[in-house]
Design goal:
Number of helices: 8
Number of strands: 0
Helix content: over 70%
Oligomer: single chain
Radius of gyration: 24 Å
Length: about 140
């Protein structure tokens, strides 16, 4: 039987090493010559992988491995710590991604308002929803 380090030791080493690998991560990303071309070329592999995962029911199996409490704890501790930074770094991406939909809303001629709670008011919402959906589907 091969000798294997205790799991706690392996996990602690992972955390120690991975926590200090930020510069190596940046260097690795910097070496990528054309992410977009390489990723687009792998579209067929992606589709095959997703279909294999669907066939093997891997999504449901993965969900079953994590309790709601574990998910929530990790989402709060990891996500909470990184959320603000991620939002600040994506301001320009958000603006450019939302701009076409803002233009769609600006271009809509809405039906007249009705009294509070009236069907006419829901028609205004429907008009915006349909226009936004059509814009998304046209991309």
């Amino acid at each position: 039987m091969p000798s294997v380090k205790p799991l706690a030791e392996i996990a602690a080493k992972f955390v120690r090493r991975a926590s200090s690998a930020g510069d190596e991560y940046k260097t690795g990303v910097g070496r990528v010559t054309n992410w977009q071309t390489n990723t687009a070329a792998a579209e067929g592999l992606y589709a095959s992988g997703v279909q294999a995962a669907v066939s093997a029911n891997r999504f449901a199996k993965g969900v079953a491995k994590v309790s709601n409490e574990d998910w929530k704890n990790k989402a709060v501790t990891k996500g909470g710590a990184n959320y603000g930074t991620g939002v600040r770094l994506s301001e320009q991406d958000f603006a450019s991604g939302y701009a076409p939909y803002r233009q769609v809303v600006e271009s809509i001629t809405l039906p007249p308002r009705g009294p509070k709670g009236s069907p006419e008011n829901y028609e205004r919402v429907r008009a915006i929803g349909e226009a936004q959906h059509n814009a998304k589907m046209a991309q």
